[in-house]
């Protein structure tokens, strides 16, 4: 399939975030083969599709660096609680009852919500990940998937073996849109001896590790009390950072923790809305970026956010750093936008995903600029971070394929998803409450 997008303002998000006011993009198969100003494509070329994108902004799709897709099933089920109480009293008891089909439909709802808000790639950690992989394949999204592992649970050994099978079966599937990692949940659920087994497997399979680290004060106190170290220092001691790491949260960090994360090249997924809602704290993003850390943005699951909207997440990230540091220049729009897109792709180790340039995968969204909140046009990047909303995303292309056009999702049956999710959520929560 050869597609041309013409007439759009193109925000390439290449170094310096170049904006082409009236641009042309060519997509051939999965890849971008041309990005240039109007008139740069020779008129003799033939295309299967020409998308007239006048009045639109073309930009890289959002990369949600940390979520639990199927937790859309539990959206609004447990709110206004701190993390440990939320997990132990509300979430884990329901998760024990989840059937594979529940996970599939929760992930389908999540894909629908993400596509409709311009997310093209997400990183997921959960149970029954074959079902999430099936949903990703069907939706046409790109994803980095990790089977969640609770080292303290009786079934941890079996879950680890199942991770090996999952990685062997799914890594590189869906025309390469699916990649995989190992997913030990957190230092407080995965003790060092279990993590050692996870690292042996990472070495065997040559995959990275997705883990929650330093999310709450309670975690810091528990790990300090058990091991006499911070969670990051403990992870350094067990050898975690000898592998590519996707570290979710990183809220409570010492200067030494930041030094370790930067020196070891860890990717960090910042989740501002989940951290606010669970009152976990404010991640030191400004300090991390100043130190040279690689930081992407995530929503966390829909049970602690409560949506998967990366536009909103960008705005929250920028505003939160300003208020935390009392500095209005903290996390400017351009940096928030980079975190939500191209830097997110780097955090997930996706080498040919990110900036709109020839040779990169065609993961492109078209944002409708014909809206009151996008006028006047002083600064489009500021508009995207401080004024845009998810419904401004008009069209989504992933891996060179149209998955949403004029707000119609082409790969998914919305009505069926709503029906299945409502039915399953009622069964699950009703069962726990009764
Ligand atoms: C082992 S699968 C993933 C596991 O993580 C739980 N979870 C969801 N959100 C968070 C969070 O913010 N911190 C820690 N754990 C979280 C989820 O419910 C699954 O049990
Ligand atoms: Zn999480």
TrEMBL record:
Residues the entry annotates as binding substrate: 95, 185, 215, 300
The keyword Transmembrane helix appears for this protein: no
InterPro entries listed in its UniProt record: Amidohydro-rel (IPR006680), Deaminase_MtaD/DadD (IPR023512), Metal-dep_hydrolase_composite (IPR011059), Metal_Hydrolase (IPR032466), MTA/SAH_deaminase (IPR050287)
Catalysed conversion reaction: S-adenosyl-L-homocysteine + H2O + H(+) = S-inosyl-L-homocysteine + NH4(+); S-methyl-5'-thioadenosine + H2O + H(+) = S-methyl-5'-thioinosine + NH4(+)
EC annotation from Swiss-Prot or TrEMBL: 3.5.4.28, 3.5.4.31
Domain Amidohydrolase-related, residue spans: 58-403
Note on how the cofactor is bound: Binds 1 zinc ion per subunit.
Enzyme class: hydrolase
Known cofactor(s): Zn(2+)
CDD domains found in the cross-reference section: ATZ_TRZ_like
One Pfam entry name: Amidohydro_1
Keyword Mitochondrion (UniProt): no
Gene Ontology molecular function terms on file: 5'-methylthioadenosine deaminase activity; metal ion binding; S-adenosylhomocysteine deaminase activity
Record's keyword terms, sorted: Hydrolase, Metal-binding, Zinc
UniProt: Zn(2+) binding residues: 66, 68, 212, 300
Family according to the record: Belongs to the metallo-dependent hydrolases superfamily. MTA/SAH deaminase family.
Function of the protein: Catalyzes the deamination of 5-methylthioadenosine and S-adenosyl-L-homocysteine into 5-methylthioinosine and S-inosyl-L-homocysteine, respectively. Is also able to deaminate adenosine.
Protein name according to UniProt: 5-methylthioadenosine/S-adenosylhomocysteine deaminase
Organism taxonomic ancestry: Bacteria, Bacillati, Bacillota, Clostridia, Eubacteriales
């Amino acid at each position: 399939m050869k597609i041309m997008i013409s007439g759009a303002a193109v925000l390439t998000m290449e170094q310096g975030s170049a904006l082409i006011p009236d641009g042309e993009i060519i997509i051939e198969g999965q890849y971008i083969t041309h990005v240039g100003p109007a008139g740069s494509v020779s008129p003799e070329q033939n295309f299967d599709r020409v998308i007239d994108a006048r009045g639109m902004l073309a930009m890289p799709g959002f990369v949600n660096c940390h979520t639990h897709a199927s937790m859309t099933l539990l959206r609004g089920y447990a709110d206004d609680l701190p993390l440990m109480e939320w997990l132990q009293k509300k979430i884990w008891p329901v998760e024990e009852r989840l059937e594979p089909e529940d996970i599939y439909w929760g992930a389908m709802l999540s894909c629908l919500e993400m596509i409709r808000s311009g997310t093209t790639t997400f990183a997921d950690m959960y149970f029954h990940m074959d079902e999430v992989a099936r949903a990703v394949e069907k939706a046409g999204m790109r994803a980095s998937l990790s089977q969640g592992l609770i080292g303290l649970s009786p079934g941890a050994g079996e879950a680890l073996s199942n991770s090996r099978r999952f990685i062997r079966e799914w890594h590189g599937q869906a025309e390469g849109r699916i990649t995989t990692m190992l997913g030990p949940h957190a230092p407080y659920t995965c003790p060092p001896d279990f993590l050692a087994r996870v690292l042996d497997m990472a070495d065997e399979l040559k995959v990275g590790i997705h883990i929650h680290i330093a999310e709450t004060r309670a975690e810091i106190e528990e790990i300090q009390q058990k091991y006499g170290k911070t969670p990051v220092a403990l992870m350094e001691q067990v050898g975690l950072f000898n592998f590519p790491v996707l570290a979710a949260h990183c809220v409570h960090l010492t200067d030494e923790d930041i030094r370790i994360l930067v020196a070891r090249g860890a990717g960090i997924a910042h989740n501002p809305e989940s951290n606010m809602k669970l009152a976990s704290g404010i991640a030191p993003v400004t300090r991390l970026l100043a130190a040279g850390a690689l930081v992407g943005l995530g929503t966390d699951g829909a049970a602690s956010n409560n949506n998967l909207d990366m536009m909103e997440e960008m705005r929250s990230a920028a505003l939160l750093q300003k208020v935390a540091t009392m500095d209005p220049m903290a996390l400017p729009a351009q940096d928030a936008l980079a975190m939500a897109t191209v830097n997110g792709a780097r955090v997930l180790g996706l080498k040919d995903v990110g900036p709109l340039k020839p040779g990169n995968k065609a993961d492109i969204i078209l944002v409708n600029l014909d809206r009151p909140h996008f006028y006047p046009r002083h600064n489009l990047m500021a508009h995207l971070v401080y004024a845009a909303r998810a419904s401004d995303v008009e069209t989504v292309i992933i891996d060179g394929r149209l998955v949403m056009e004029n707000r119609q999702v082409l790969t998914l049956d919305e009505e069926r998803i709503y029906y299945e999710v409502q039915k399953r959520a009622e069964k699950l929560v009703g069962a726990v409450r009764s």
